[in-house]
Amino acid sequence: MIQLKNIEKCYQTRAGKNYVLRQITLNIEEGEFVALMGPSAVGKTTLLNILGMREGDWEGEYYLFDHAIHDLKPKERLVLSKQYIGFIFQSFNLLDTLTVYENLDVPLSYRNIEGSERASMVCDTLNRFGIVGKKDLLPSQLSGGQQQLVGVARAVIAHPKLLLADEPTGNLHSSQGEVIMDLFQKLNREGATICMVTHDPRYARHAQRTVHLFDGWIVEEEEAARRPQETAELKQSGFEVA
């Protein structure tokens, strides 16, 4: 699904080039759940932004399915990003003046989808995530865990092929973080490909593979050890977050 070959990213300074990523070669298969780990400022988020086509001026080769992303113009990358990718952010990035329902409708408004079908998709997603009762609330009226739940719902509503999550548990307490990780595992079992940035090994263990970065280099890759089912299926009525 994804092939990265010798990806490099640097910034020019008075002292010379400051490399953020060095010779990143990485394959991600469709249906994988991959965690990018490492301390702060090692290039994790930069790499995620390159995958999401939100970062420019990098060197190397990036293939997404049959598309050579490195050969595309910015507008062409934007079209592909909207078609294939859903984003989940640490700071939630919900629109403060819109209700939960309206926030979920935003990514659908960018696509050629009729209003009645959009309404049906939003209602189905509200029901799936157990947030029907929150649909008329503003983000400020939700807890942090509920806001992140809406953020995940917004990311998956248009059925993207790839979910990119940047420290999705960073603003949550541990129990809320575990609920989000359980949700990621459920989405992955349903077929979603997920690439998640985290610095916390508690959450990285939910992924099938962990890629460790340090000073811009990939220094280690490890497969998840076999483990018993960590969490039962979330409640059939939806995913409740305190």
Tally the beta strands: 10
Low-pLDDT residue spans: 226-237
Query: What Rg, in angstroms, do the CA atoms define?
Result: 18 Å
CATH superfamily: P-loop containing nucleotide triphosphate hydrolases
Termini separation comes to 35 Å
Q: What's the pLDDT, averaged over the residues?
A: 90
- In total, how many domains does the architecture comprise? 1
Give the spatial strand order of the biggest sheet: 6-7-8-3-9-10
Class by SSE composition: alpha/beta
* CATH uppermost class: Alpha Beta
Q: What is the second-level CATH architecture? A: 3-Layer(aba) Sandwich
List SSEs in N-to-C order: EEEHEEHEHHHEHEHEE
Question: Beta-sheet strand percentage?
Answer: 25-35%
Task: Summarize the structure in words.
With 242 residues, this protein is α/β, with parallel strands linked by helices. 31% of the residues lie in helices and 27% in strands. The protein contains 7 helices and 10 strands. Strand 1 and strand 2 form a beta hairpin. Helix 3 packs across helix 4 and helix 3 packs parallel to helix 5. It is globular, with a radius of gyration of 18 Å.
Break the fold down into its secondary structure elements and pairings.
Blueprint: E1 2-13, E2 16-28, E3 33-37, H1 44-51, E4 59-64, E5 67-68, H2 74-84, E6 85-88, H3 100-109, H4 115-128, H5 144-156, E7 162-166, H6 174-189, E8 193-198, H7 201-204, E9 209-214, E10 217-223
Parallel strand pairs: 3-8, 3-9, 6-7, 7-8
Antiparallel strand pairs: 1-2, 1-4, 4-5, 9-10
Helix pairs in contact: 3-4, 3-5
